[in-house]
Amino acid sequence: QVQLVESGGGSVQAGGSLKLSCVASGSISSINAMGWYRQAPGQQRKLVARITYHGGIMYADSVKGRFTISSDNAKKTVYLQMNSLQPEDTAAYYCNLEPNWGVVSWGQGTQVTVSS
Description:
Elements: E1 2-7, E2 10-13, E3 18-26, E4 31-39, E5 46-52, E6 57-59, E7 67-72, E8 77-82, E9 91-99, E10 105-106, E11 110-115
Parallel strand pairs: 2-11
Antiparallel strand pairs: 1-3, 3-8, 4-5, 4-9, 5-6, 7-8, 9-10, 9-11
C-alpha cells in the first residue's frame, strides 16, 4: 500500500501564499507522476497541477502564473507553491500518485481557505 501525507494547508487572506507538501511512502513500485487536485463543496474534484517523474508539468488554466508544482524524486515528495491566492482557490487539496502500473493513490486532503 501507498500512503500520501499532505501538509501546509491553512487560512490566508486574499493575495497571500501557502506551500503544500505531500510525502509518499509504502510499497511504491515506480512513479509516473504526482499531482494536486482540489475539491470545493458541492463540486467535482479537479486537477490543479501535475508533474511527471521526468519533470513534465501541466497546470489548470485557473492557476497558471500563480501556482508552481515541484518535486523531489529522491524524497518521493511533491510541493505546490500557491501565490496570489484568491477566495475561489478555497477547497480541500488532495495529492495523488500515479504509478507506472497499479492503482492511483490519494492523500487524505488538506484544507485551504482564502478570505477576501
